[in-house]
Design brief:
By secondary structure, the chain is mainly β. Strands 2, 4, 5, 6, 9, 10 and 11 form a 7-stranded mixed beta sheet that branches. Strands 1-3-8-7 form a 4-stranded antiparallel beta sheet, with no helix packed on it.
Length: 115
């Protein structure tokens, strides 16, 4: 099992920044990649960013150039630095760990961007 704890969400004005954190514990040796998804009200959940254990990253087109995903392997923590936030970035952001055991989800953290 992998347990994920997220932090860093909140309310920010458009153009502002937030940094989300996701700390993994448990069978972290099994993790091959970690990522962030988001789900806005009335919309489907979408992948925002993903980073492999080797550091390879991939981003949704809508956040490229504004968001940066990074991983601190020593702390088993993944970060999502979100800059130039827009109202359409408002959503519940959830961390996911892809492991050889299964996929594990965090509880989600609300990000609200006001115009």
């Amino acid at each position: 099992q992998v347990h994920l704890v997220e932090s860093g969400g909140g309310l920010v004005q458009a153009g502002g920044s937030l940094r989300l954190s996701c700390a993994a514990s448990g069978s972290t040796f099994s993790i091959s990649a970690m990522g962030w998804h988001r789900q806005a009200p009335g919309k489907q959940r979408e992948l925002v960013a993903i980073i492999s254990s080797r550091g390879t990253t991939n981003y949704a087109d809508s956040v490229k150039g504004r968001f940066t995903i990074s991983m601190d392997n020593g702390k088993n923590t993944v970060y999502l630095q979100m800059n130039s936030l827009k109202p359409e970035d408002t959503a519940v952001y959830s961390c996911i760990a892809y492991s050889t055991l299964s996929n594990f989800w965090g509880q989600g953290t609300q990000v609200t961007v006001s115009s």
